[in-house]
Design brief:
By secondary structure, this protein is mainly α. The protein has helices at residues 2-19, 24-40, 51-80, 84-87, 102-114, 140-159; strands at 91-96, 118-123, 129-134.
Length: 160
């Protein structure tokens, strides 16, 4: 991936040299042309197109921002409700993960912990199960499914 980024930047500089204009607009135009060229040549060269991962990173950031806003709203509703103690069902859930590397599991644990109302407490011995405390868990299976379908899937898009 790093080689492709450097190659794309190099193509942008070559574009600027050929056009004999050294502006940021020409660099960006050359970058876009280089991106298109790498996309066309992706099946002839032995690499996966790197911009797919860049888009996946942005999708992960947007997903995290969306989940952050939703969880802030949920925690605010719980805290401001008049019958707070009767409305909440705190719980600890074991979330098995399909992520392979420690880096991916750590990223998942951090994304879970950064959203209000949830906290990753511990890992299993093999590091493939996360123990998550949540302020309100009416359905544990639904909570596990939601983590799998949101954060875990987005992390797998970025890293695989």
């Amino acid at each position: 991936m790093a080689f492709q980024i450097l190659l794309n930047i190099g193509l942008a500089f070559i574009w600027m040299l050929l056009r004999n204009e050294y502006t940021m607009v020409e660099f960006m135009l050359g970058f876009i042309v280089g991106l298109a060229l790498l996309y066309v040549l992706r099946r002839f060269l032995a690499f996966d197109f790197y911009f797919r991962r860049v888009i996946a990173v942005f999708k992960l950031l947007i997903l995290f921002t969306y989940k952050l806003i939703l969880s802030n709203i949920d925690v605010t509703k719980i805290v401001l409700s008049p019958k707070m103690k009767s409305n909440i069902q705190p719980g600890i859930i074991a979330v098995p993960t399909k992520l392979r590397t420690d880096w991916e599991v750590t990223l998942l644990a951090n994304l879970i912990s950064l959203t209000p109302g949830t906290l990753t407490m511990n890992f299993s011995e093999d590091g493939r199960t996360l123990y998550v405390h949540s302020i309100h868990v009416p359905d544990k299976e639904a909570a596990i499914k939601e983590i799998h379908e949101s954060f875990e899937r987005a992390i797998m898009e970025v890293t695989h």
